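Item description
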Amino acid sequence: MIFRAYYPKPLFPPISLSDGCMLMCRHCMGKYLHGMIKITETAQLIDFCRDFEKKGGKGILVSGGSDKEGRIIGLKQSINALKKIRKETDLVIAVHAGYVDENTANELADACDIAFVDVIGDDGTARQVIGLESADKYIESIKNLISAGIPITPHITIGLYYGKIKGEYAAIDAIKKFNIKKIVLNVILPTPDTDFENIALPPLKEIEFVIKKGMEAGEAALGCMRPRGMREIEKIAIENGIKDIALPSKEGIAYAGKKGYAIKEVPACCGLTDDLIRKITE
């Protein structure tokens, strides 16, 4: 049995296509952009990727701030550059897509290897936390990306509604209607200097219930967005059959070893599917 430990940096870094964010979701408020490599010019993006591959880079996660409609700022303008990068390099290109309409999805088909899509199962959470009118946009994005032939990995954040469970089960049920190979489960973080700085985290038992439900949708990974100090989350995930964890703690790796797993390190995002992991590691 293999337990995969994912370490995206330095060989699979996140890239922000924007200077900031217009949507300013209450749990993030643009803070996570600070940990990304900012590249807003398409020519610079191409040059970076060419040089990055020569230095041993494996891939990139294309992301950034969102506009008021939930679309990644700069993504549409970068599609031709991404097509060129995909054609001229062996880098794996993952796009954390945000809202994607039908036309953009069709254009992305030749520009990326996989798309990550955040899924929310509750309209109230979409409005009050994200700033969008409805959660339907996420399912619409999934439909558009699948129709365009792009593999997707849905992401669900446990406790996104102010640290409470609301809509996670509905999100999982919605995902189960599609032929999804893998989902990523995150856990809300009380991020400093945001409206969520002082929220209470969901009880561990409730987190476990969502993880168990998430396993019904297919293979699941425990994502990098989670409270690092709560080592119990990793143990719960492993106990319930999760074999892919981003940035696991030493305790998490030791526990996986005690459960009989052989540990395999993967220099990439945990949302990648098996074929893309093989491309990177073999």
